[in-house]
Amino acid sequence: MYTPPYFAVTEQDEMIAFMQQHPFALLISYADGTDPEVTHLPLEVESREDGLYLTGHIARSNPQGGMLDQAGGTVLAVFQGAHAYVSSSWYSQPGVPTWNYMALHAYGQARIVTSAEKVAQMMRSLLDKYEQGQQTPTTWEAVPEKVMDGLLRGITAFEIKVERIEAKYKLSQNRSEQDRLAVIARLEAGGKQEREVAAAMRTVWQEQANRVFTKTSR
């Protein structure tokens, strides 16, 4: 991913938090002589003693499953945060429009999870996580055993050992203070996604200011 230095995110904790906050990702893989396969799916982040892992599952009939356990095959998981159009009419000087966004690419080796116990544990954790905010949450025990067994047999669970992460927050860091304030004001007057971008811009701006202050105060 092309990332100028002023848009780059390098802090490990920040990148992990971003994946946890935006878990619905694109999983991309390919085999020699074939077109890339892409699946839209939620991915979980796990920090283990031997490194960082992503876990998930796809339908057993999904052809991507056959690519995930190939020796030496690298997969790419793409996580996308909030994004918004930025009009150049908001700037103090003539310019061209752009798009502000946050994105993260995680590369690693995939491995099929074959343990039935491990697969069930993964699915139970996923269900508990996303049902906990519901008014009447669905529990693992509430699903008939026969139905659950059929569903578990119909998926391919996997884990990815992350080898490299690239993260990019393109949030007007290369613009003047006047332009940043103008962009934030316009986005704050927009919809939910635009307001999320405006909030991220304020956070990144404050972090930059804190780093400058710390550096100059030493």
3D structure, described in words:
- The protein has 218 residues and is α+β, with helices and mostly antiparallel strands.
- It has one domain: Pnp Oxidase, Chain A, CATH 2.30.110.10.
- The chain has five helices and eight strands.
- It has helices spanning 12-21, 116-131, 145-153, 177-188, 192-216; strands at 8-9, 24-29, 37-42, 44-48, 51-59, 74-86, 98-112, 155-170.
- The longest helix has 25 residues, at 192-216.
- It starts with 7 loop residues before the first strand and ends with a helix.
- The mean pLDDT is 92.
CA radius of gyration is 21 Å
Uncertain runs are none
Please provide the ordered H/E string of secondary-structure elements: EHEEEEEEHHEHH
Task: Give me the CATH superfamily.
Answer: Electron Transport, Fmn-binding Protein, Chain A
Largest sheet: 8 strands, antiparallel
Estimated share of beta-strand residues: 25-35%
Helical residue percent? 25-40%
How many structurally independent domains? 1
